[in-house]
Amino acid sequence: MVFDVEELEKFRSSGKILCEAREEMRSYVKANMQVIDVCEKAETLIREKGGIPAFPCNVSINEVAAHYTSPPEDKSVIPEGSTVKVDIGVQIDGYVTDTAFTVSFNSEGRSMTATAEHALKAVIESIHNDMSIGRIGGIIETAIKNQGFKPISNLSGHSVGRYLIHAGISIPNVATLATNKVHTGEVFAVEPFVTQPDAIARVDDSPQNTIFRLVRAKSVRTVYAKQMLKHIETHFKTLPFAERWLIGVVPQNQQDEAFKELLKQKIITSYPVFIEASKKPVAQAEHTLLIKENGCEVLT
Ligand code: MN
Ligand code: MN
Question: What are the structural domains, with CATH classification, of the chain?
Answer without folding.
Answer: 5-205+275-298 (3.90.230.10), 213-273 (1.10.10.10)
